[in-house]
Predict the 3D structure of the following.
Amino acid sequence: MSAPVAIGEDAVGLASDELLAEIAEGAAASDASGHLVACHDLMLEAGLFHVLVPRELDGAGGTAVDWFDTAVAVAHADPAAGWVMAQGAAQNAWIAVAGSPELAATFFRERRTIATSSAGAATAERRGDHLVVSGSRWGYVSGCEGAAHLGGMVRTTSAAGAPEGRMVLVPAAGAAISPTWDTLGLRGTGSHHVEIPEGTAIPLADSFTWPNLTIVRPGPLANAIEQSVWLITVSAAAVNLGAARRAIAEATAAATHKLHRFDTVPVIEQPPFVRGVAELHGQVDLAQAGLRALLDQLWEAALRDERPGLEQRARLRLAAIAAVRTGADVVRAAQGLTGADALHRGHPLERIGRDAQMLLHHVATSPSSAELLGTVLLGTFRGLPGSV
């Protein structure tokens, strides 16, 4: 297993070897059921969902690299758990910097998570200090079965009447989960549909602007994530890089004692395997090091009270998209080095292979997103800053 991840100045090991072992042990069961990973509450108790939350709100006060490294380590144990953790931690960070005083005071009183999505066509009408929602059904709400609050993005208007996007939240008991998540991979994310009853009046205090966060509590974290979409793309990269590292480890373990017909030495000593696995290590190390360097630059700027510009966010997201593809390619190659054994349902590489394919199809890593980001670098970007 990966070593514990150091968080913040106190080097608190949130993702301990023991926790990672429990996460890995339950991965197959959640994959079979299509429901949320059983380790959700263990990760919550260990503080993984609060890795970015500032210490004054009883979080770990970690950096962007701390968050990324933690997600890679968890995804090494189980990619589905890594996605739930990365996204849950990002959403808790949104509340930490943009949640109203009432929401933050209540939410951070104890350890809990939210689960939201922008995959819907919900609208909301402002009525005084409430938002009355309609068409409030969202898909791909990862982690919804373990979250204390559920919701999604609605299109509404600001107090001045201008168009505005907001994430609205209700206690989990006030929403309905439809079990629609029946997919090839990442089944343990339990990314079902969520619906809030038509006409529900939600206090404005239980919402926040999104994807452009209106900052309530300034600081380095707020500087870094005011434009929030990059966290989703980097989450996907962390998951596929963790999956790739696990795939290399599984292929190496399988090769240790495997002998093909007429072989005199195990596969692990044969030049094609040695060359192949060395190349895979290099690909993952390069992708991970590049993203860590970009995240370090972003965080150092945030500490100087600077916000990442359009080009900086575009480059970070493009590197993350490339890392998602690299991770998926490495997993496939590790399966190839392992041979037919990797296709058996009981082999970890079979599940990891399915998991690694899923995030190639996420909207944040899609060819259309890459094209949009490319226009930023070419100086022809005509979209909204929040889309980057």
Observations:
- The two ends are 34 Å apart (CA to CA).
- The chain has twelve helices and 13 strands.
